[in-house]
Every structure is written in C-alpha cells, then in structure tokens.
Write a structure and sequence with these properties.
alpha/beta; globular
Length: 265
C-alpha cells in the first residue's frame, strides 16, 4: 500500500488559502490534536524550543494529528539534527528551525528532511508515516518528501541580510520571520508596526518571491497588524497563538464574566 499523506499547510500555501497553525507549549497529551481540529486550525506545531515537552510526548501528539488529518509540525531547539530526525520518523510532517542565519545553516536543515542523494535523512522504515506498513522505498520516499515542509526562521538582522541566499537553498519551503526575537534584537521589542521592521519584512518578502518560496509571519498575534504584512506579500498562513496564551485569555475572560455577576453586571 502506497503512503497516503497530505500536508494541509503545504497545500494551502500553494493555493494562497488561509491556513491557521496552533503553537503547542503547554499541552502534553494527544488531546491537543483534536482541540486544534475542533477550534478550526489546519495544523499545530509542538514547540521543543520554548517548552519542556519531551520528544516522546511530541511524537504521540504528531501521531494523533496524522490520524485526525491535522498537519503535525515540530519546532526543534536550534540546529538539532538528531531531534529533527527522531520527530520526522515519529510522524511530524515538517520542521521549524529557529535562528537560521545563512545559506549554510539552511542547507543543513533542508538535508535533514530529504533522503539521499538530496539529503541525509535516514532510510525509510515502517513508521507512523507508512501506517506501519513496510514501505515501497522509492515511491514512498518521494511521497513523504513531497509532503514534508521545511521552515527556517529568520530572527535577527543577520538572517534578513542573508535572506536571498537562504531562500535560494533547494528544499527550503518557508522563510518564517520570528518577529518577537527580531524586534528584540533591534531594540524595539514588540513594536510590530515600526517602519524599521516593515523594511526588513519587505526585503525578506522580495527574497522569497525571487526564489519561489513563501514568507510567513511569526510572533504577531494581532490579526489587524498581521493584515498589514499580508498586504505587503506575506503568506496568509498564521500562527494564531500558543495553547498557553489562548487558555489564559479564555479563562481570564470567563472569570471576569462571572465576577461581574457579583458586581451586579
């Protein structure tokens, strides 16, 4: 039986449709995949950079996502080949790698996600990606590579300065600007409407367009501000927020509603 996979993020980026991705930092169980689906998200990514989630927990969440048709992604903690390999074999359909600064970094990341001769990904075995059926090596390799997406994060001005050479790297699909880290490195932390940030976005968007890649907004949770960057040419693919922040916002709003009862509201 041939591998049957669909990476919704890749498909929606290609068609220009809106794609919503949930960031997972708080959850530790497979329930989050169903919650992502029920809340209207097309995908989720498990953040191993900014959490203590283990690889085993991440793999279980990824397998749940595969079963539900919600695209599972992972953010690895830096240039971490071993972590990326474990998670890709365990069911992730893409990796997000932080703080990529040049084409050498980008080429290394892309190589993790491609089988030889294109890259260094380990030989294909029966796994969640093949539904534990023994794979047909060539056809299934091609199917898995086709549905695997590679995000490289530009999080400082050095990354932006090398955006064009990074975008030119074969196997890189998306340049993801980490707006929070980028503004922090510029001394304007969180000022997402600052003209200086917009200038850097314009440069990165032009680089991505030149090489047929996508440019995605990261770190900006305000839809009004994100709309400005979409108008400049960023993809309509959004990280809507972290599970932690969304839980906190919902819980705080609900607590306030009930507190208002006691205040005669």
């Amino acid at each position: 039986m041939a591998v049957q996979l669909q990476n919704t993020v890749k498909a929606r980026l290609a068609s220009g449709e809106v794609c919503n991705i949930l960031a997972v930092r708080h959850s530790r169980t497979v329930d989050i995949a169903a919650i992502a689906q029920a809340s209207g998200h097309d995908a989720f990514y498990v953040d191993l950079q900014h959490s203590t989630i283990t690889e085993d927990q991440a793999v279980q969440m990824c397998q749940a996502g595969l079963a539900l048709g919600v695209t599972p992604l992972v953010r690895v903690p830096g240039l971490a080949h071993a972590a990326a390999e474990h998670l890709l074999e365990g069911g992730a359909l893409g990796v997000i790698v932080p703080d990529v600064r040049n084409a050498v970094d980008a080429a290394e990341v892309a190589s993790w996600c491609r089988y030889p001769p294109k890259g260094v990904r380990s030989p294909l075995n029966a796994s969640p990606l093949t539904r534990y059926v023994a794979p047909s090596q060539q056809a299934d390799r091609e199917a898995i590579e086709r549905e695997t997406i590679v995000f490289v994060m530009l999080e400082n001005e050095a990354g932006i300065d090398h955006a064009e050479e990074i975008a030119a790297v074969p196997g890189v699909d998306v340049l993801l600007i980490g707006s929070s880290d980028l503004t922090s490195s510029m001394g304007i932390h969180g000022q997402f409407e600052d003209p200086r940030l917009k200038q850097l976005y314009q440069r990165a968007i032009a680089a991505a367009r030149k090489h047929g890649k996508h440019l995605m907004i990261g770190g900006i949770r305000d839809a009004r501000i994100a709309t400005q960057y979409v108008a400049m040419g960023a993809a309509r693919c959004f990280i809507t927020g972290t599970d932690t922040a969304l839980l906190l916002a919902g819980a705080a709003a609900q607590a306030q509603r009930f507190r208002a009862i006691g205040q005669g509201g």
